[in-house]
Automatic annotation (TrEMBL):
<keyword id="KW-0732">Signal</keyword>
<feature type="domain" description="F-box">
    <location>
        <begin position="1"/>
        <end position="38"/>
    </location>
</feature>
<feature type="signal peptide">
    <location>
        <begin position="1"/>
        <end position="23"/>
    </location>
</feature>
<dbReference type="InterPro" id="IPR001810">
    <property type="entry name" value="F-box_dom"/>
</dbReference>
<dbReference type="InterPro" id="IPR050796">
    <property type="entry name" value="SCF_F-box_component"/>
</dbReference>
<dbReference type="Pfam" id="PF00646">
    <property type="entry name" value="F-box"/>
</dbReference>
<dbReference type="Pfam" id="PF07734">
    <property type="entry name" value="FBA_1"/>
</dbReference>
<dbReference type="InterPro" id="IPR006527">
    <property type="entry name" value="F-box-assoc_dom_typ1"/>
</dbReference>
<dbReference type="InterPro" id="IPR036047">
    <property type="entry name" value="F-box-like_dom_sf"/>
</dbReference>
<dbReference type="InterPro" id="IPR017451">
    <property type="entry name" value="F-box-assoc_interact_dom"/>
</dbReference>
<protein>
    <recommendedName>
        <fullName>F-box domain-containing protein</fullName>
    </recommendedName>
</protein>
Length: 386
């Protein structure tokens, strides 16, 4: 009975109730309770309004500091619930963040221009964890000739979270190094780079892994003498098997360059962005994983030029970034675009500059990211900004 009652409570209450007695502490910390609480759908949550946004506001001046903003999506109000600074150390005040991926309430972040460090954050329970430094690169080339991409996901077979790092040299098709970090062992391993198909990741993909275990990137299928891509595809990594695969795109996107990956209703979605006076966004969804013929075009939205697109919210709404009306020169804001009415709903999060801000959709969870060996590099809980 206690188990069922506690499932209905928000995380902030559960954290307090852990101190009631040892049995409640053990229950709330148990794998079974953490799993069921995350997947528990309340009667008043049928529209999944418990989903939230995390936005990284990188510093733009020497006096600035990176701010992690948590945007509550409850009842579609989209208000800033909390702001955090990156812990110092290990991060310098002016460090930038370029990669944000969420999985089961855990946020994986990579500092900009840093090939060796990743950190995890669970904002709901205020835990922060710096992962071990990645293995040294197996090349003597200068770092600015390298391209490094990463993914984050969950292996349900072993109840383990993993980070994968893929390294390319110049514009070559073959990856030169692939490393995988397991949270359960708190260590990295280098796997055979030949396992990566002969494609080159062109830019980062999903901000949430597909069904927790598969991360995807857009990739090029080789280049001609003028460094023009022969075509586009999707490269995926399965965290349960540590293997790579490719997923074909619709033929109409074989040579399209401006594409985005996202998740929509637990399926992989592809967003094509065409700028011709206005900005037309076409959204396709892959109904059956790996089956090219199951790609289906859902809708096309036409928006004013100058609106940047950052992903897809629940119910197919596009997450956009646009100029802040009445704001100072260069100030921007986030908004949601309804695919049916094409109306914009403004999110009350002012942004100082017209730059792409890393974002991800996430849901609060009790999943702990403490390391099993006592976490010698587990930093103190992240403190909110006063």
């Amino acid at each position: 009975m206690v188990f069922e009652i506690l499932l209905w409570l928000p995380i902030v209450s559960l954290l307090r109730f852990k101190s009631v007695c040892k049995s409640w502490y053990s229950l709330i910390e148990s794998y079974s309770f953490v799993y069921q609480h995350y997947h528990h759908i309340h009667v008043d949550r049928l529209e999944k309004d418990e989903e939230n946004l995390i936005i990284i506001r990188n510093p733009h001046f020497s006096t600035d500091q990176c701010i992690i903003s948590l945007i509550s999506g409850k009842k579609n109000l989209f208000q800033v619930s909390e702001n955090f600074h990156l812990p110092q150390p290990p991060f310098a005040k002016t460090d930038w963040v370029r990669l944000v991926i969420s999985c089961n309430g855990i946020i994986c972040v990579q500092p900009n221009l840093d090939y060796y460090n990743f950190f995890l954050l669970n904002p709901a329970i205020k835990q922060f964890r710096l992962l071990p430094k990645t293995p040294d690169l197996l090349t003597s080339s200068r770092s600015n000739y390298l391209k490094v991409y990463a993914g984050f996901g969950y292996n349900s077979r072993t109840d383990d979270y993993k980070v994968v790092r893929v390294v390319y040299k110049d514009m070559k098709v073959e990856a030169i190094q692939v490393d995988v970090c397991s949270l359960s062992t708190d260590s990295w391993k280098t796997i055979d780079a030949a396992l990566v198909p002969h494609v080159t990741i062109s830019y980062s993909g999903l901000t949430t892994p597909f069904r927790n275990k598969i991360y995807c990137w857009f990739a090029d299928e080789g280049f001609d003498a003028n460094n023009r891509s022969f075509g586009k595809t999707i490269l995926s990594f399965d965290f349960s098997k540590d293997v790579f695969e490719t997923i074909p795109l619709p033929d109409v996107y074989k040579v399209k360059a401006k594409l985005m990956l996202s998740l929509l209703w637990d399926n992989i979605a592809c967003i094509e962005i065409v700028r011709r006076g206005k900005c037309d966004c076409s959204v396709w969804m892959l109904y059956e994983y790996g089956v090219k013929e199951s790609w289906t075009k859902l809708y096309t939205i036409s928006l004013d030029f100058g609106i940047g697109h950052r992903g897809v919210w629940k119910n197919g709404e596009l997450i956009c970034q646009t100029k802040l009306k009445g704001g100072r020169e260069g100030e921007t804001q986030f908004c949601l675009c309804n695919p049916v009415t094409q109306e914009l709903k403004i999110l009350s999060v002012p942004l100082p500059l017209r730059l792409p801000y890393p974002i991800a959709v996430y849901k609060d969870s009790l999943v702990s990211i403490k390391s099993a060996n006592g976490a010698t590099h587990l930093s103190p809980a992240v403190e909110p900004i006063a």
